[in-house]
Amino acid sequence: MSFNSFGHLFRVTTFGESHGPAIGGVIDGCPPGLRFRLDEVQAALDRRRPGQSRFTTQRREPDEVRILSGTLAEEDGTLISTGTPIAFLIENVDQRSKDYSAISESYRPGHADYAYDVKYGLRDHRGGGRSSARETAVRVAAGAIAAKVLPDVTITGALVQMGEIGIDRANWDSAEIGRNPFFCPDAQAAARMADYLDGIRKSGSSVGAVIEVVAEGVPPGLGAPLYGKLDADLAAALMSINAVKGVEIGEGFASATLTGEDNADEMRMGNDGRPVFLANHAGGVLGGISTGQPVVVRFAVKPTSSILTPRRTVTRHGEDAEIVTKGRHDPCVGIRAVPVGEAMVACVLADHFLRQRGQVGTPPAWPFPR
Known about the structure:
Elements: E1 5-6, E2 11-16, E3 22-28, E4 35-36, H1 38-48, E5 65-67, E6 71-73, E7 79-81, E8 86-91, H2 113-120, H3 136-146, E9 154-162, E10 165-166, H4 187-202, E11 209-216, H5 230-239, E12 244-249, H6 260-263, E13 267-269, E14 275-277, E15 285-286, E16 289-290, E17 295-301, E18 311-314, E19 320-323, H7 337-360
Antiparallel strand pairs: 1-2, 2-3, 3-8, 4-7, 5-8, 6-7, 9-10, 9-11, 11-17, 12-17, 13-14, 15-16, 18-19
Helix pairs in contact: 1-3, 1-7, 3-7, 5-7
Protein name: Chorismate synthase
Function: This reaction introduces a second double bond into the aromatic ring system.
Family: Belongs to the chorismate synthase family.
């Protein structure tokens, strides 16, 4: 199985399976001299860690990360990247492979079971193997290090819709994201989500979600036409996350309902001699290149395929069957996808920053004389 790496200059390779002894990754191309602490990487992993509320899988994984190479340690514990590959490991400690024995010969509808089997002639039924969202812990660790490449960029993810419940943007409070188990910026919507997901969870079903990630402080000039577009790489990175079925930049699909006048991000010169955008329908990217505005992306996560409701399927032997998936599963996998989305955006931005620096050096701040 190839294609376990993403990125160009900041390149991340992941390895491991859901029910194997460990998962981990290697970051190749990290610049030397980046300073970070292991507890910063661990803090990012803790936000994604399972079993923190009744609304996520009850699998108990501490997700403790170990850095194996690519850094030097100072006396106070600060790690400094050496420019060589950074390898890290996260052990699996709470696998229950026997929970999946009943589905070893049957395909879960909506899951990657059938696709893996038809491609490779085998599949790891124990939690899905490489197709499990367990792999995304590695991406979160890599994203925490990627964020150090662009220290002036702030990346914030939020769950803006769960099933039929969406947020009221008039109630947006960024501080609220860390106060509820859904990473939701609207306290009133979060309260409704709790009741809604309790019903979904108790019925043994699942539901999807929409996550929004905003990167502020992104410098202008990142991305390259025609086949190195920043928004194209962001879309590919987010689509690579398990269960993601759609990505949009800025207005996205809603732009199809706008007129040219409504969609245009008009500009005026600011007092500092730099242009000011009067709107951000483009989501901070024009022609595949960042404009200096906030980069805004959203992605849709489908409902978890492992549910208790009986579903019609077939077996590996070509027989009709009915399947019920027991075990520990997220009733809304979109919740823990929030820190994963943040991490993937960080990795893409770090990669594009290094590509820009390697191609043209430091980009001009604006195309106007000072």
